[in-house]
UniProtKB/TrEMBL annotation:
Keywords: Lyase, Metal-binding, Zinc. SUPFAM superfamilies: Mss4-like (SSF51316). Residues 3-126 form the CENP-V/GFA domain. This is CENP-V/GFA domain-containing protein. The keyword Coiled coil does not apply. It holds the Pfam family GFA. Belongs to the Gfa family.
Amino acid sequence: MSLHGHCNCNAVQVTLKELPEGDARQTAHCRCTTCKRDSGAGGMYVTIVDEDLVEIDDPTEAKKLWTDNLTESGKPAERWSCGNCSSPLFARTPNMPSKVIVRMGLFDDIPPVVTEIYMRNKKSWEPAVEGAASIEGAPY
């Protein structure tokens, strides 16, 4: 199954290509401080995929790069958003070369969350996702 989505203003289209046979699309709830601030909430739904499985269509060159130098690992991460509407699009980290962390809010229909990451940032009043694996920090 491939997924097709876009930013709020529709300037940037994102396609997650069909996965190889036997693989399942893995959705994670990321509670890192950047995802919490980007979403204005308790985190963001993401999927981490090989970069060759992501297609970005940006005919007006709307996507904008922000280099995050405040990462937990101390290594700068690339964070991409739409320069028009500010929708978070995807991120890259040197900790996972050739991978892309795609923001699942771009898509209308997403697979259920199977993992929660950065659980150490979860507030006591926030519910956990029932049945999801729990990782205290980063998934690498």
